[in-house]
C-alpha cells in the first residue's frame, strides 16, 4: 500500500492577527509547520505534500526539502486545497492521509493507527473524531438512529440541534485515493461560506453506500488546533507538559516543570537537574549531572557532564565537562569552553576557545580569541577585537596571567606563562614568561616558570 500524506497549510490564519503566517509561529522554539512535517516523515517514506498559499515562499523556506509543495493560489476551502494535489499524487498513492499544519501535538502513532484501521475496515474514508466539552468551532459528526455516520456539518452551517453535538471532526482523514480523486471535483461550495468543504466527502461516500469508519482520539490534547494566540498558548502548555513528563520519567529532575521550557529537539542525559525558569531550545544537548538554572536561556548548545549554569544566556556554544557559568554571563555563537573552565559574573564570550581550567571570574569580554589552558583572565579584561572595520584575533598561550582591566588590542599574542599588570593596554605581542604593564604595555621583567602556579591562585 502506497501512502501519501497531504498537509494543508495554505490558510491565512486571520484570527492570529499576525504578519507572520500562522504555521510559522514557533512553539517551544520550533515553527508549527515542522511538527506536522516531521510527524508525517515518521508515518510514510514518501515526503509529505504541503499545500501552501498565504506567504508560500516563507513557509517553503522554513520547511526546505523535507516536503513537496503545491501552491493553492486562492484559498477556496479544504476540499479545493486537497484537489490541488490530485495531479501530483494521482499515480503515486493508494491511500491519502490528510492533516493540518496547525495541529502540532498530533502523534505519528495516532496516524499509523488510522491507516491500520482504514486498511482493516476497507473503508473509503477513515476519520478521527473527538468528544470535547468545548466544540472550538469544529465540524459536528452527524449520525443516524443506528449510530452510523451520515455527514459532517460545519458549525457555520449547523442547525441549533446539530450545534449541540459534542462528537467533533478533528480534521484528520485517510482516504481511498482513487475514490478521492474521482469525487473531490463533485463537491459543491457551501451555501453559507462559499467554500469547498473536504468534510462534504463524508456525506458523498455515505450516499454512494461506501464505508466511512471513525476512530476516536484517545488523548484530546493531541488534536488541539491553533487558530488564535490563546490556542497557541494552550498548545505550548500541552506540549511542555508532554515533553517535561517524558524527561522526568527518563531521569531528569525538573524542580518546577511549569517554568521549564524544553524544546522538542533537546536531548538531556540522566540526572540532569533543571531549576525554575529555564528555557532550552534548538538541538541543545546536556550531559549527565549537569545543573541548569534558575533563570537560564540556552539555544542550540552542546553541554557536557557535571556543568553548572546559573542565570545565564548561552547561544550556539560548546561547553565540555565540569564547566561552570554565571550568574549573569552570556556565551554567544562559537564560544567553546574546555573542561573545567570557570566563567563567573558578567562575562561575555563570542567565537572563542578557552582551554582547560581557564578562569574568567568577573566582567570580561572575550571575542575572536584563542585562549590556552589554565589561563587566568583578570576582572574587567577586554579583547579589543574590532577596529571599526574588521575583527582581529587575540591569542593567549597556556598559563598566562592577564591582570585586571587589561585591554588586549587585537591582533595580539600573549606568550606562555606571561603576565600583564593591572590596567595594561596591550598593543604588541608579549613574549613567553615576560611581565608587561603600562599604557601601552611594555616588557618590564621575566617570570620564572616555577612561579606561574602561585600567580594563578592569587586572583
Ligand atoms: C476544518 C474542518 C472542520 C474541523 C476543523 C478542525 C472543513 C470544511 N472543516 O475547519 O470540520 O472540525 O477543521 O480543525 O474542512 N486550508 C487550506 N486551504 C484552504 C482552506 C484551508 O490549505 O482553502 C488549510 C488551513 O490552512 C488549515 C486547514 O486547512 O490548516 C483547516 O482550515 P480551516 O479554515 O482552519 O478549517 P476549520 O474551519 O478549522
Ligand atoms: Mg482551523
Keywords summarizing the entry:
Spore Coat Polysaccharide Biosynthesis Protein SpsA, Chain A; UDP N-Acetylglucosamine Acyltransferase, domain 1; 2 domains; nine-stranded parallel β-sheet; 42 strands; elongated; binds uridine-diphosphate-N-acetylglucosamine; binds magnesium ion
Provide structural commentary.
With 459 residues, the protein is of the alpha/beta class. The protein has two domains: 3-223, Spore Coat Polysaccharide Biosynthesis Protein SpsA, Chain A; 229-458, UDP N-Acetylglucosamine Acyltransferase, domain 1 (3 Solenoid). It is 19% helix and 31% strand. The protein has ten helices and 42 strands. The strands form seven sheets. Strands 1, 4, 5, 6, 7, 8, 9, 10 and 11 form a nine-stranded mixed β-sheet that branches. A nine-stranded parallel β-sheet has the order 12-15-18-21-24-27-30-33-36. A nine-stranded parallel β-sheet has the order 14-17-20-23-26-29-32-35-38, with no helix packed on it. The longest helix is centred in the middle third of the chain and has 21 residues, at 229-249. The chain binds uridine-diphosphate-N-acetylglucosamine and magnesium ion. Magnesium ion (MG) binds next to loops.
